[in-house]
């Protein structure tokens, strides 16, 4: 499976600060997703991104969140003003059209808001 | 009510044992996924199923669409199989709805 690199692997930020999480898929796929996992809880869907537009978002994905694919390669998740409850592991994923297992997940970014 | 329920939540096995993890779901799906999450947090896709059965090495996944149930089996379990195994279903919008996971520990 092609790798999906996420940066940074771990970020500690002050409450109220903006953070940008980055995802760099190797292949040029159309469907991208962001998920998050609060420690000890299940993985939750945040947003899906298709053809450079948001196609679906969850209740979690409020106005503090935004996604972009600024240069056709990197895929970013921005949190404008972080809250303590944003502390979680954030995963990007893409769905390959013909892949037998469907999804490839990034390595994850552990965000800690203090 | 959770849309995806897994059982058991925790499972401890001796090396070599046959392991079964179950998943039931309550929503209409286009596919069901089994994923493996390692202690470091990384998630690896194991299977994507929409019907029948798939096998990869010592792993077997089955799904019964009518009963809305899937099972993941591990034959001849090994300590390196220790991980959290997650069932997730893909809804009509394409995003995944995750179960809480089953934490498997295989003792040597």
Write a short abstract of this structure.
The complex is a heterodimer of chains A (114) and B (108). Chain A has strands at residues 4-7, 10-13, 19-25, 31-37, 44-50, 53-57, 65-68, 75-79, 88-95, 103-105, 109-113.
Features:
heterodimer; A: 114 residues; mainly beta; seven-stranded mixed beta sheet; four-stranded antiparallel beta sheet; 11 strands; 0% helix; 52% strand; B: 108 residues; six-stranded mixed beta sheet; five-stranded antiparallel beta sheet
Describe the model:
The complex is a heterodimer of chains A (114) and B (108). Chain A is 0% helix and 52% strand. In chain A, strands 2, 4, 5, 6, 9, 10 and 11 form a 7-stranded mixed sheet that branches. In chain A, strands 1-3-8-7 form a 4-stranded antiparallel sheet, with no helix packed on it. Chain A has 114 residues and is mainly beta. In chain A, a hairpin with a 6-residue loop joins β7 and β8. Chain A starts with a strand and ends with a strand. Chain B is mainly β. Helix content of chain B is 0%, strand content 59%. In chain B, the strands form 2 sheets. In chain B, strands 2, 4, 5, 9, 10 and 11 form a 6-stranded mixed sheet that branches. In chain B, a hairpin with a 5-residue loop joins β9 and β10. Chain B starts with a strand and ends with a strand. The interface between A and B is medium-sized, with 27 and 23 residues.
